[in-house]
Amino acid sequence: MIELTTPFSEEDIAKLKVGDVVSISGYIYTGRDAVLPKIVKHAEEGTLADVNVDLQGQVIFHTAVSPAGVGPTSSNKLEIEGSFEPLSRHGIKMHLGKGAIKPETVKALAENNAVFAIIPPVTALLESQTENREVVCYPELGMEAFHKIKVNKYQAIIAAAQGESIYG
Q1: Per the CB 3.0–4.6 Å rule, which of 30, 44, 108, 143 could disulfide with 64?
Q2: Per-residue pLDDT of the chain (168 residues; tens, 9 = 90+)
Q3: Per-residue 3-state assignment (H helix, E strand, C coil) for 69-99
C-alpha cells in the first residue's frame, strides 16, 4: 500500500503504476457531470481563484456529496471524462472514480503526469473516512456542487498511469 497525502507532488505521481493500491489522506475536491464543465471553464479562463479553487497537486473525486455519504460515479460519462485532460493540464494529479476510460484519456493523463484510480462503491465505508466537507462553489447544484472534503485513508487502485491502463 502506498500512502499519499494531498497535495501530491509530481514525483508522487510519477512513481505510480497500474495496479498499485494507494491510501489517500488530506483535502480533495469532488465533482461530477453538473459542475465539472464549469470548473474546466474557470481553469481555461484562468479564473479558478475567483471561485476559491486551487487544483495544483490535487485529487478530483467523481461523486456527489449527500447526507448519506459519498460514493464513486461513472467516470466515463461525457462531461466527466471530458474534464480529465484540461483539469490534469491545470494541476489535478489524480482522478478518482469508477469505470473504463478511453485510450485517448489514458494518453492525456500520461502527457500531464496524472493518473486515474478506481475506488469501490462502498459509500458507508467512505463516509466513515470522510472527516469534513464544505461547498467550495456552485451551491445551487446541491449535492453536485463543487465540494472540498477531508479524507482519511481512502483506498483506491491505480487504473491508468504512464500511458497504461487496466482496461487494455
Answers
A1: 143
A2: 999 999 999 999 999 999 999 999 999 999 999 999 999 999 999 999 999 999 999 999 999 998 888 989 999 999 999 999 999 999 999 999 999 999 999 999 999 999 999 998 788 788 889 999 999 999 999 999 999 999 999 999 999 999 999 987
A3: ECCCCECCCHHHHCCHHHHHHCCEEEEEEEC
